[in-house]
C-alpha cells in the first residue's frame, strides 16, 4: 500500500521533470508540495518525519536543483522577443518622424511668404549703415 503512494509520487515527479503535468500548469516549479499536488494529494502529505519519503525528497531536491540550473542558464526568450519588438517599433517611429520633419521643412522652404527675421534685420542694418555712409560723404 505504501509503495503505491510512493509510486504515485514518483510518477508525479517524473511528469513535473518532463514539464507535462496533469494537474499543475506546465512550467511549475519542482517542489515537494507541487509533487504532492501533482500526485493528487494535499500539500503537506510528504512529511519529513516519515522515513518512507526520504528517497522521494532527495529526488525532488535534485530535480529542483536541475530545473533551477536549466532556467538560469537560458535567457528568457519571451522577454527577449518583447524587447526586440519594442526596439523595432521605436526605430520605425523614429524613421517616420524624420521623414515627417523632412517633408515639413520642404513645405516651409517652398512657401514664398516666409522670411527669416534674423536675416531680414541684418539686411536692414546693412542698408541703413550704407545709407549713413553715403550721407556722410
Q: Roughly what fraction of the amino acids lie in strands?
A: under 5%
The helix-and-strand class reads mainly alpha
Number of strands: 0
| Rg | 38 Å
Q: List segments where confidence is low: pLDDT < 50 over at least 5 consecutive residues.
A: none
Task: Report the end-to-end length measured between terminal Cα atoms.
Answer: 125 Å
Profile the largest sheet: none
Helix content: over 70%
**Domains, number:** 2
Count of helical stretches: 5
Outline, from the CA principal axes? rod-shaped
Order of helices and strands: HHHHH
Query: Overall pLDDT, averaged?
Result: 84
If you had to describe this structure to a student in words, what would you say it looks like?
The protein has two domains: 2-73, no CATH class; 77-136, no CATH class. The mean pLDDT is 84. With 137 residues, it is mainly α. The protein contains five helices and no strands. The N and C termini lie far apart (125 Å).
Topology, please?
Elements: H1 2-17, H2 32-38, H3 54-73, H4 77-110, H5 117-136
In short:
This protein is an all-alpha fold and 137 residues long.
Labels describing this entry:
5 helices, single chain, 137 residues, 2 domains, mainly alpha
Amino acid at each position: 500500500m505504501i509503495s503505491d503512494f510512493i509510486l504515485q509520487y514518483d510518477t508525479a515527479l517524473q511528469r513535473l521533470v518532463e514539464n507535462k503535468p496533469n494537474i499543475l500548469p506546465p512550467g511549475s516549479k519542482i517542489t515537494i508540495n507541487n509533487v504532492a499536488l501533482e500526485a493528487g494529494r494535499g500539500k503537506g502529505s510528504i512529511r519529513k518525519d516519515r522515513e518512507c519519503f526520504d528517497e522521494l525528497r532527495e529526488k525532488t531536491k535534485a530535480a529542483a536543483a536541475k530545473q533551477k540550473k536549466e532556467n538560469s542558464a537560458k535567457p528568457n526568450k519571451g522577454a527577449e522577443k518583447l524587447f526586440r519588438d519594442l526596439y523595432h517599433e521605436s526605430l520605425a517611429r523614429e524613421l517616420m518622424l524624420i521623414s515627417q520633419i523632412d517633408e515639413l521643412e520642404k513645405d516651409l522652404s517652398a512657401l514664398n511668404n516666409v522670411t527669416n527675421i534674423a536675416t531680414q534685420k541684418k539686411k536692414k542694418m546693412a542698408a541703413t549703415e550704407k545709407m549713413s555712409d553715403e550721407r556722410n560723404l
